[in-house]
Amino acid sequence: MNYSDDIINRIGSDKNLAIRLDKAMAGVKDGFVEYVNNLGDGATRLLYYTSCFTENYTDVCERLGNEDKRFLLGLYELIKHRDIIFRMVRIYVETMLKHKNESDIKIILRQVVPFTTHYSAMQSSRFAIVYSIVKYICYGSKINGVIQSAMMKKIGGLSSAALITLSTYGTVQHAADSANNLKHFLPQFYSALYMQNIEMMYFLIEPAVLSVGYLNMGMASNAEIINALKRMAGK
Known about the structure:
Blueprint: H1 3-13, H2 15-24, H3 28-37, H4 43-48, H5 58-80, H6 84-97, H7 102-112, H8 115-122, H9 126-139, H10 141-152, H11 170-185, H12 187-195, H13 206-212, H14 222-232
Helix pairs in contact: 1-9, 6-9, 6-12, 7-9, 7-14, 8-9, 11-12, 13-14
């Protein structure tokens, strides 16, 4: 079992974090289920599908079909697992630290996570250090607010008391746009998400990633990574 698997297993035992993230996702899962029953409501994206009747635009039709399939795969992951936000943040941190040695990672941990939290992790394995950083970010105020922000950006006309819903097909277009931007600016992160069938769910955390800017993950300095992770945690 590699350290990524250990992290996934470990979140199951952290009840406080699981409950916190689960509350942040409240209403989102129900919204996605409703989306499946109302897939045809996104007029804009359906309009794109008229290209299927034009010989010169068959590539557009194929791309749309593939995006829909990838979105449904991500939807399945969201419904099946409640830790999808944690998983995406974990993959982000793992990708960012991929080219760092143990010494650099411990330096980053000391600067990002409070001493009372990071002390025990410093004595542990690499996966424990990554877990500590991801947990700290997910406990931060920004991640919880980012989920609702991602939803409401594309869903107009809802009152503040309305349940967050993803019943419009336009959400798929939003998810596709976000995934394509990620593929262009952070291809390593995109590929890692793609391997787990969740790249189309990236739009859920996109505001948090954009708030720290797109880093060259293979070349970023310790200082740049520290600053990015702190900002992602809302510090």
